[in-house]
Specification:
Helix 1 crosses helix 2 and helix 5 crosses helix 6. By secondary structure, the chain is mainly alpha-helical. It folds into two domains: 51 residues, no CATH class; 74 residues, no CATH class. The radius of gyration is 24 Å and the shape is elongated. The chain contains eight helices and two strands, in the order αβαβαααααα.
């Protein structure tokens, strides 16, 4: 089994299912590929992609639509860290509420802190200096910025914050 990118085309005025269907047919023809060779299409979950795949499965009966696993994981992770689901998980784990933490609020504060440090040179310099003092001889790490398309990034962000907790404390202690 082989896979290939047939083309990479910028669609002006948006990427409708009809335009992408036309492009797909043109690409198959330009490559001289028989429709029997076209057995799968992998997309995200956008409505235009779903419609494209419906058209594709009608036109090429051997073709099956599959959702991108990475996109599914990313959407699941975003929902897991959203207010309602995070609160439900917390309430299920600790029905009495004694051990429940504001996960969503904590994530917002972490992301705001990261954004602040990454945007201001002075803050970044203070964190770099604090790392050099706390972790003498080790390379300076940068804070990881959130991106909606990376499903595992929230975990990486929190892991980096935990790793840098002592330099972050030191950074703020220096100000007093």
């Amino acid at each position: 089994m082989k896979h290939m990118v047939l083309s990479c085309v910028k669609h002006s005025g948006g990427s409708t299912a009809a335009k992408m269907d036309e492009q797909l047919a043109a690409d198959l023809t330009s490559w001289g590929l028989d429709e029997k060779c076209f057995i799968a299409i992998v997309t995200d979950m956008a409505s235009n992609m779903n419609l494209l795949c419906k058209l594709t499965e009608e036109k090429y009966p051997a073709t099956k639509h599959h959702y991108c696993t990475d996109h599914n994981l990313q959407l699941t992770a975003v929902k897991a860290y959203s207010g309602n689901i995070a609160l439900q998980i917390c309430n299920d784990a600790f029905p009495d509420g004694t051990e429940c933490y504001d996960i969503v609020g904590a994530l917002k504060k972490v992301k705001a802190f990261i954004s602040h440090v990454r945007q201001l040179r002075m803050s970044k310099a203070k964190l770099d200096d604090a790392q050099r003092q706390v972790f003498a001889g080790k390379p300076v790490c940068v804070l990881i910025q959130a991106m909606k398309t990376w499903w595992c990034l929230t975990h990486m962000i929190l892991e980096r914050i935990v790793d840098l907790r002592d330099p972050i404390k030191d950074m703020f202690w220096q100000e007093f």
